[in-house]
């Protein structure tokens, strides 16, 4: 079928039924958004899931979302049609959209998150403005490429400013965490990985010899253990994804003047847990920075770095589902079964 004949698409839209055990997605056929003068039509080849997607589907997102929106913000595909005023992209280009379509340079004051403020990418065809798209490395297959826009760029942004030999504490074994672990290892950083699963920690130690680990369920005072592992100095940076339940401890185990990159909110959020936030952040002079993936410029820089080193990403993928198994894939992520990324292949 030629691009001129494509007028509809299959897309998974949320049911917005948050009752446990009920379907969270509906597969529907719908009209494609019209192709405008500066937009492109993309045939999607792979869609990657993040915890954020499962959280939105189950009603846990802390920010408003559009009703019955299309899920997901990680995708890779091929341009099959372009508007008459598109200048920087061509038919056949391999691209992925940025997570925040207002965040081009990093200096914008607005934001619009895919799968929240606007429809996401869990569809076989998507239409986007050319300025929110980034070319993805040619040497990666579609499954690898699909994990770049959100998880990859988030990990890249979270580690900005690190130097060889510094120590990073990474929480968990989800998509952003394993991406950050891979990047940190390649950059010559000393790594402390935390998880509540000995099996997951062992699997990561087998894959990345030399990393240090802490099981936070067996070691509730894991911040003190991190201090011990750094001879009382603290880590240089934390990739923090627990939220209120772990943030203060992350600050406590960061060296004075260090950085905490807040990339997520996996634990149950309770403001009471933050009662010591202000005195701790002042005492330890911590730079606490919020990370929401990154700008288009960040994604371009990351893709350039990957291409320069010809870095493969297949080892970060835990499991690949078919597009039709999207419901099963969302539940898999919601149950926390993955070590790494979950991807739908179209």
In short:
With 346 residues, the protein is of the alpha/beta class. The chain is built from ten helices and 15 strands.
Structural notes for this entry:
The chain has 346 residues and is an alpha/beta fold. The protein has two domains: 178 residues, Alpha-Beta Complex (Quinone Oxidoreductase, Chain A, domain 1), CATH 3.90.180; 138 residues, Rossmann fold, CATH 3.40.50. 27% of the residues lie in helices and 26% in strands. Strands 3, 4, 5, 6, 7, 14 and 15 form a seven-stranded mixed beta sheet that branches. Strands 10-9-8-11-12-13 form a six-stranded parallel beta sheet, sandwiched between helices. α10 links the parallel β14 and β15. The model has no long low-confidence stretch (mean pLDDT 94).
Layout of helices and strands:
Layout: E1 8-14, E2 25-31, E3 39-49, H1 51-57, E4 74-82, E5 94-97, E6 125-129, E7 133-135, H2 142-146, H3 148-158, E8 167-171, H4 175-186, E9 190-195, H5 198-207, E10 212-215, H6 222-229, E11 235-240, H7 244-252, E12 254-262, H8 277-283, E13 287-290, H9 296-309, E14 317-322, H10 326-334, E15 341-345
Parallel strand pairs: 8-9, 8-11, 9-10, 11-12, 12-13, 14-15
Antiparallel strand pairs: 1-2, 3-4, 3-6, 3-15, 4-5, 5-7
Helix pairs in contact: 1-10, 3-4, 3-9
